[in-house]
Structures are given as C-alpha cells and as structure tokens.
Amino acid sequence: MSENQKKEVNLSQKLTDEITPRFSIKKNKINGVKKIIAISSAKGGVGKSTVATNIAIAIKKLGFKTGILDADVYGPSIPLMMGVDEKPISEDGVKLIPIKKFDIDLISIGLLVSENTPMIWRGPMVASTVKTFTNKVIWNDLDFLIIDMPPGTGDALLTFSQEIDINGVVIVTTPQKIALADVRRGIEMFKKINVKILGIIENMSKLTLEDTDHFIFGKDGGKDMAKKFQIDFLGDIEINENLRKSSDDGVPYVEKFDDHFSKNFMSIADKIIKRVN
Ligand SMILES: Nc1ncnc2c1ncn2[C@@H]1O[C@H](COP(=O)(O)OP(=O)(O)OP(=O)(O)O)[C@@H](O)[C@H]1O
Ligand SMILES: [Mg+2]
Question: Ligand 1: which atom is nearest the Cα of residue 248?
Fold first, then answer.
C-alpha cells in the first residue's frame, strides 16, 4: 500500500470515529440504592414482569433490602402482580415515597400515570420519568433495586439504559425461535451501550403433565443462545399454572409458596446477586 493510500485509510477511520454516535457517558446513580439490576427481554410477553417480581421477592428472602421500579411505560403490570393500587404519597410535594408491599419498596410508572394516558404521550414522557425515578423517589437504603424494563429495543429502553447507572441486566426469553431473534438484538444493544449482561433466564421452558415433559415453546433455546453469546445461563423456569395465578391474584409465587419451584427462583436470584459487582 502506498503512503497516500495509508493516509486515506487513517483519515476515513478518524472520520468514522467522529460520526459514530456517542452514547451518553453520564449515567445517573439512584439515590438510596446500592445496586441496580434491570430485567429485560427484547420481546414482549415472555414473562419479564413475572420474573422481576419473583426475583425481587427471592432477593428479599435472601436477606437483602429490595425494591422494584416498574419502568414499563407501555404496560406497567407490577402493581397488579404485587397487589398494589394506592398511589405513592409525597410529604413535601416534591419527593415520592415508594409503596411498601411484602417488605419490598415499589414505584411504578403505572401508579404515576393515569390509566387513560394515551400510549402516544407515554413515549415522550420517558425522559422526565427517568428523572423522577432517579431524583425524586426516596428509596430507603436499598441493597438491590430491580427494574422491570420497557419491552423492545426502542427509545424507552434505550433512555433508561443510557441514563441510569445499571449494574447489570438479566435477559428473559422463552426457548422459542421468534423470541430468540429479538433477544439477539437485545444483547447487541446492551453490549453497545456498555451495560453488563448478568445472564439469560429461560422462561416457560417446559410444561410437565403427569410426569411427561412437553416442550411447548421449543427446547433449550435460551441455553443455546447463552452458549452462543458466551453469556451465563442463570436457569430455567417451567410453565406453572400457580405462577400465573399468583401473579393475577397479586401475591407473587415466591412470597406465597416455599416449594421446589420457589427454591428455583431463590437459586436464580442467588446467582444474579453474585454476578453483580
Ligand atoms: N412460567 C410461567 N408459567 C405460567 N405462566 C407464566 C409464566 N411466566 C409468565 N406467565 C404468564 O404469562 C403472561 C405474560 O407474563 P408477563 O406479563 O410477566 O410478561 P412480560 O414479558 O412482562 O410481558 P410485557 O412485555 O407485556 O411486559 C402473564 O399472564 C403471566 O402470568
Ligand atoms: Mg411486563
């Protein structure tokens, strides 16, 4: 290669660097919180909120002060799953006091925004919502705050991930091919914005009926994805009618039961907190 050609290559590399979008480097800590763990899934409906609530309860049962921040602007479901419908109160008209339920501190965008707020307004509200969550909530010296992230890899998720100093993200998926395609996009996005991926949880891994396993959504998809991307596999969660039912009833499964299914959540929670640095 001639000297001139070399120069051209260098120049174009420099230009490339200049035009590559910079991701925000100023990430905000959340006052009163030691570690922040996000639960995310690029695809909707794979059980992210179910996992977020039960993991939060499991971490609490492991002896840590825990909170949940429901950041799902489009479909906040944590209040229902935790059986909460009261609005957080403010003593000074500025700072919000989280709701306490099952010894968990909880704030949800669903408790701040009227159910009738049109979806189209919710997107632009995300930036101001992040500020509310980071500056205006009185979190009471929590060891861990679990964030139920908005679905997809769109603006809402990006804003939260760029503005909040997240210690790590857990990715929830089903073993299904169509979910895994979205997970791949999610992994790439978190890598790009330097959020540590703590691992993958495979939800709805199988349904066991009369000692026979049925792989409704396919088999080992999450495990294989973890291997492929060299990400830790944190465990799988079977399809369980009582898990669905307890979410609908507003008492998370892990709060209500102490059986082997609950212990599985405890062991996943233990792995998660050990991976957070
Ligand atoms: N392992 C499971 N066994 C049985 N039902 C489950 C399981 N995981 C989740 N569900 C049910 O599947 C539905 C979707 O779960 P959930 O709302 O947690 O998903 P999500 O990923 O948070 O959805 P969204 O993208 O809408 O926020 C709920 O009705 C929930 O109760
Ligand atoms: Mg959800």
Answer: 31
pLDDT confidence band for 18 (50 / 70 / 90): low
Give the pLDDT of residue 153.
72
Give, as one character, the DSSP assignment of residue 107. Answer: E
Residue type, 272: I
pTM of the model: 0.89
Q: Residue 6 in 3-state DSSP?
A: helix
With beta carbons less than 8 A apart as the criterion, state whether 111 and 100 touch. Answer: no
CATH number of 23-170+238-275: 3.40.50.300
Q: Distance between CA 126 and CA 123 in Å, rounded? A: 6
Residue to mutate, 57, 244, 262, ligand 1, most ligand atoms under 8 Å from C-beta: 244
CA–CA distance, 34 with 166 (Å, rounded to integer): 10
Going by CA atoms, what residue is nearest to atom 29 of ligand 1? 244
Which of ligand 1's atoms lies nearest the C-alpha of 245?
Answer: 31
**CA–CA dist 131, 135 (Å, integer):** 6
All residues with CB under 5 Å from ion ligand 2: 48-49, 77
Residue with tokens 């969660």: 237
